[in-house]
Design a protein that fits this description.
There is one protein chain. The chain is mainly α. The longest helix has 29 residues. The radius of gyration is 18 Å and the shape is elongated.
């Protein structure tokens, strides 16, 4: 069973497009698949770095500091729906 995907669109430079196309042709995949693999790898690195930082902070008796007052960064919006 395939993992459900979210639609995400963005503009890219011609330089990026050429490299995505080259990678897609070299490995017989679509550009969207290559981009998704790149973003997946980036997300895994970010999650790993967060875990490492949390462990190091904990080992030093500290807790990660989150700015809970600024909830708009996660798209939730602390003041209701965005306009």
């Amino acid at each position: 069973m395939a993992i459900p995907l979210k639609d995400f669109r963005l503009g890219i430079t011609e330089h990026i497009d050429i490299y995505l196309d080259a990678e897609a042709r070299a490995f017989g995949k679509g550009k969207a698949t290559i981009a998704r693999e790149i973003l997946q790898e980036w997300a895994k690195r970010k999650a790993h770095a967060h875990k490492v930082a949390a462990r190091r902070l904990s080992a030093n008796g500290l807790q990660p500091e989150f700015d809970w007052n600024d909830l708009e960064d996660d798209g939730a919006g602390s003041k209701g729906a965005r306009k």
